[in-house]
Amino acid sequence: MIIGITGGIGSGKSTLSKRFREAGYAVYDTDSAARRLQNENIGIRQQISALFGPEAYTDNELNRKYIAGIVFNQPELLHKLNEIVHPAVRADFKIWAKQHKSETVLFLECAILFHGEFHKLVDKIILVTAPQSIRIQRVVKRDGLSEKQIIERINNQLTDAEMAAKSDLIIDTDITDINQLDVNSFLLNFH
After folding, report:
1. What is the torsional sign of CA 94, 126, 179, 20?
2. How would you write the chain as a 3-class SS string?
3. How confident is the model over 39-54, as pLDDT tens digits?
4. Mean pLDDT score of the chain, rounded to an integer?
5. CB 27 within 8 A of CB 14
6. Is 7 buried (19+), middle (13-18) or exposed (0-12) by CB count in 10 A?
7. Max alpha carbon distance in the chain (Å)?
8. Of 53, 100, 131, 179, which alpha carbon lies 20 to 30 A from 21's?
9. Domain annotation for the chain: domains and CATH numbers
């Protein structure tokens, strides 16, 4: 079984994924995979450089701050970037899943589970939510972004209501302390 973990920026999905990892489960993080592929995959590098110019890479690494400053204000460029990266991440996940086929449960952590067509790769979906004010506080503390930058990112994501309609389980991290969650019992009840 493959379980997708999704939610907006700052919702707590990475904390939930960390709990599953600590319990011994395999978790594929699409954000980490995208960062790796954007830096290592020559084809992706060439396409991103063609789209955003030579400033797209600095010191052989994707210039994430530069790219974010463009795409979160220009949805058409975000869409083009996603068309480059998402298929590569989906293909990478499929390889990873085959490498872990002996596991009974795999997890796919993905903020853009529905946008990126990743929902088609999972059997069940957990949506992790939190009030927007709490999400903003978390991301300011974690990433040092401004409230304006965070809201730009939130506005480029599906709403919790849109994702909830397509999810099998919702965890509100304002109510549920993920750090206290017994993930093995949780999974028994979730199947």
Report:
1. negative
2. CEEEEECCCCCCHHHHHHHHHHCCCEEEEHHHHHHHHHHHCHHHHHHHHHHHCHHHEECCEECHHHHHHHHCCCHHHHHHHHHHHHHHHHHHHHHHHHHCCCCCCEEEECCCCCCCCHHHHCCEEEEEECCHHHHHHHHHHHHCCCHHHHHHHHHCCCCHHHHHCCCCEEEECCCCCHHHCCHHHHHHHHC
3. 999 999 999 999 999 9
4. 92
5. no
6. buried
7. 51
8. 131
9. 2-190 (3.40.50.300)
Rounded to whole angstroms, the Cα distance separating 9 from 129 reads: 9
Residue 70: closest CA among 85, 84, 81: 81
- pLDDT tens digits, 119-159: 999 999 999 999 999 999 999 998 888 898 888 888 878 89
Residue 187 confidence (pLDDT) above 90: no
Looking at residue 80, its pLDDT comes to: 96
* % the chain with pLDDT above 70: 98
pLDDT above 70 for 25: yes
* Rounded Cα–Cα distance for residues 37 and 2 (Å): 22
Query: How many Å is the Cα radius of gyration of the chain?
Result: 17
92 vs 177: CA distance, rounded Å: 32
